[in-house]
Amino acid sequence: xxxxxxxxxxxxxxxxxxxxxxxxxxxxxxxxxxxxxxxxxxxxxxxxxxxxxxxxxxxxxxxxxxxxxxxxxxxxxxxxxxxxxxxxxxxxxxxxxxxxxxxxxxxxxxxxxxxxxxxxxxxxxxxxxxxxxxxxxxxxxxxxxxxxxxxxxxxxxxxxxxxxxxxxxxxxxxxxxxxxxxxxxxxxxxxxxxxxxxxxxxxxxxxxxxxxxxxxxxxxxxxxxxxxxxxxxxxxxxxxxxxxxxxxxxxxxxxxxxxxxxxxxxxxxxxxxxxxxxxxxxxxxxxxxxxxxxxxxxxxxxxxxxxxxxxxxxxxxxxxxxxxxxxxxxxxxxxxxxxxxxxxxxxxx
Length: 349
Known about the structure:
By secondary structure, the protein is α+β, with helices and mostly antiparallel strands. It contains eight helices and 19 strands. The longest helix is centred in the middle third of the chain and has 21 residues, at 177-197. It is globular, with a radius of gyration of 20 Å.
């Protein structure tokens, strides 16, 4: 498994997400608390098989294509990442630290996030029995998406991204949140159905995050034929009017109070408007009231105007969600009110 974090909202410096918080993605690269290893959690865990960050320009009308920086070095040991994070400022940021699947190659082209056209994509998890289903999945791709998958290593993540792109005729065109939701549902459904047809018994953990620079989708999904009640990999979200570094006070010489800043960050809620949303494998701070668990087998949708929606993911007839009977978006999507993000985290699944 890996760890990932995505931010959308008021522009921030990448360091506020990547390096500075007490439990930043850098810290999660060597001290992850909730990484799923085989069938159990083993904190702390190492995610040292490479890293990547992705971001968009502040002028999406002139430059809608994202930029990425990736390396096979451990995130905690890359000075360039530390310096870049202090200078990159964006309204939409991705960060990922990789723990390679046993037997897979550690190479820069396999580090997340991946980009194509206006899209950024990253994944925490795996496609169960991928060596048995890869050929069938890649047979679904058109020539351009097939070449994209091959050029980027044809890993399970890359093939999943290629399947998503395959449903879009123009990778630079702006589409609606509903189109992206349907495409993501289709990818999850195809993976589950293909695994079932091939008799795969290994679990698939499909925590995907994708953005076109205007909106963001994040899934938390598991398909485990041997244990239908298995928990998916961890995923949280936080929302507020701002995401800021907290000011701390300490006693100085002579009892004077000295103000300073440390690594504690948090959401502020000055009014009911949402201006910031973060989706993350693990909370970036120890203030658990800032973070809400994404329910199992659900998709978090952040629209361009920062409305939050939850859509249940149903991938197969066997799970009770026949694809041809999917209800309309209006009935299936559950709006998330800001006050829903203010209560304590009820579950750490």
